Amino acid sequence: MKRFLIPLMVFAVLVGFLAIGLMRDPHEVPSPLVGKPAPVFSLPQLATGAADFSPQQMRGKVWLLNVWSTWCVSCRAEHAYLVELAGQTQIPIIGLNYKEVRGDGQLDARKLSPAEEMQLVRKRANAWMAEHGNPYQISALDLDGRVGIDYGVYGVPETYLIDREGVIRFKQIGPLTPEAMQTRILPLIQKLEPRS
Amino acid sequence: MQTLIVILTMLTLTFGIPIADAGEATPMAQDPKVEARLLAISEELRCLVCQNETLAASRAELANDLRVEIRRLIVEGKADKEIMDYLVARYGDFVLYRPPVKPSTWLLWFGPFVILAASIAGLLFYLRKRTARLGNSGGETLSEADLAEAHALLDEIGDRK
């Protein structure tokens, strides 16, 4: 009987490791940007099409940067909750529209001139907002995804919590869920901004 | 003649299409030196969208963007190390196929050798114990009576033949 004890123990440990490994989501890669200053950028705004949104404008506020796109299926699922959140709380939500036209596999953006692309992006994004509601104070347009690379975006939607000093405090990969908001983000916001 | 046509068709199907496609993924492919470096760097990097593919092999949109970005950095005169650091700063150590040796990855790098050493030690310990045990019981010689009985049995077999 004793001779089976050691292999059994080794097997139990192995099962333990495998169980932990299977329960983790390999698509959730921890971001090295958490705890670092949010990368600087200046991008055109959806409302005007002109270049004037930059994260420095949000200094002194705790805010959410939500990366989205109309071609992104999970964004559709997330959007209703964002609209609800914007109605319920005071936390500013800024949208970063990621590769609206170039990221859409069904379109060939190379045939478009920059002006045509901007026009199409705004048309698509505005139609989406009109249909599903607009949770964003401002939406910045990242046409070529360069800002997305600086933020380490690899799967839309993603959401960043940025503090008053402009430091990234949290990154949600995938849709922002009520659960993630309640258990992770709201407690963090309470800590960063005690009065709200 | 027919065989030739079949072979040519197969060749076109296997090689023709990737060549036609390559133009779309590499809009800035002019300098072969830059392309060689891009390939070498992107083979060391993981595509974050399809995690078991290298950045060089992946056809994901993001992989394409990152290759364009790496190409730009090469043209700007950045060293390979700087380019790797640029990507690690954005996506973490996970993008590297060869994770750096540091306290949090010691288990990963040295764990297998620790297990190997422990197994060898265990085996040696077991073998030593086993020889000691066999040395005590198996080394005994037969008594006179046992030997006589054994001879008697052997003779009996011999007689029957």
How would you characterize this protein structure?
The complex is a heterodimer of chains A (196) and B (161). By secondary structure, chain A is of the alpha/beta class. Helix content of chain A is 38%, strand content 17%. Chain A is built from five helices and seven strands. In chain A, the strands form two sheets. Chain A has a five-stranded mixed β-sheet with strand order 5-4-3-6-7. In chain A, strand 6 and strand 7 form a beta hairpin. The model of chain A has no long low-confidence stretch (mean pLDDT 91). The radius of gyration of chain B is 34 Å and the shape is elongated. Chain B folds into two domains: 2-100, Helicase, Ruva Protein, domain 3; 111-160, no CATH class. Chain B has helices spanning 2-25, 32-42, 61-75, 80-91, 106-137, 144-160. The longest helix of chain B is centred in the last third of the chain and has 32 residues, at 106-137.
List keywords for this structure.
heterodimer; A: 196 residues; two-stranded antiparallel ribbon; B: 161 residues; mainly alpha; 2 domains; 6 helices; 69% helix; 0% strand; elongated
Largest sheet of chain B: none
Biggest interface goes to: A-B, 19 and 15 residues
Radius of gyration of chain A: 21 Å
Alpha-carbon distance between the two ends of chain A: 63 Å
| Structural shape of chain B | elongated
* Uncertain parts of chain A: none
Poorly predicted tracts of residues of chain B:
16-26
Q: What kind of oligomer do you see?
A: heterodimer
Average of pLDDT of chain A: 91
Name the helix and strand elements of chain A from N-terminus to C-terminus, one letter apiece. HEEEHEHEHEEH
CATH architecture of the largest domain in chain B: Orthogonal Bundle
- Can you write the helix and strand succession of chain B as a string? HHHHHH
Which structural class should the secondary elements of chain B be placed in?
A: mainly alpha
Strand portion of chain A, in percent?
15-25%
* Biggest sheet, spatial arrangement of strands of chain A: 5-4-3-6-7
